[in-house]
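Take a record.
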Amino acid sequence: MNWLELSFHTTHEAFDLVSNIFIEAGSKGVLVEDSNIVNEIHEDHFGEIYRLNPDDYPSEGVVIKGYLAVTTDIENQLEFVRTQLLNLKIEGVNHQLLEIKTLDEEDWANSWKKHYSPIQITDNVWIKPSWYEPSTDPNIVEIMLDPGMAFGSGTHETTQLCLELICQYLKSGDVLVDVGTGSGILAIAGSKLGAELVYAVDLDQMAVERAKGNVAMNQCDNIILEKNNLIDGVIQLPKKPTIMVANILAPIIINMLDDVVKVLPKGQLFICSGIVEHEKDSVIKALEDHQFDLVEVKEKNGWVAIVAKQ
């Protein structure tokens, strides 16, 4: 089977909008070439030497890539993408510059691997793609990941913010709920950092299957992973959650708060991200309207994560 690689150069603020267009058209996830990554420090902690080629990244903003299988519906999918991009109103972005490249099965399977290298989250917590050798250092907590085409590879700021906050706030014996688990990265982190039980849920069956593979790779046997919604899954858990994390979109976070307050006991923590800086005040207001107390707001490259207490 052949695939089409769609590439669109836009601003950091438009990441969610463009990603959603690709996914709604049929892409099972997106790749991001982020101008900020080139300027980050990449240290050699595993005996590997890797360098990022600046030519693979834009000088500013982000290049978002999605992948569509070439089927009888491909022209309708492309028309949908083009129309939705033209409807975006983002200053300084040419919405007609959608690049399309044809890939065969092998090209598609390997094209995304060059974008992933080990990522340091804290002093001792790292994300490593599955094609790297595990570390032998017993002090290192590694999340081995086959990111594939599901969200949550660890390269995006929102994932990193959530991981940093899980490292900071999760305690041994906690019960963690991960809403919109994607690749399972946050659930795996919770399990390896001492959670007694982790419940990870996603509405996308493809993401659930990818996450199951990552959970098995990391040998995390205390993770319940399923395709379900928040309410139905959490009320069936043997123990009530003590911490909940949702790395999704700001409007979804706001809309789901009615359900969050039903299943997250008083005094427990809610970590949410996927929030662009200009959406921060709206999310904070919604949290406060639902009687949450603000604990911490953390920002990185225009993205925001919020910790609140129920």
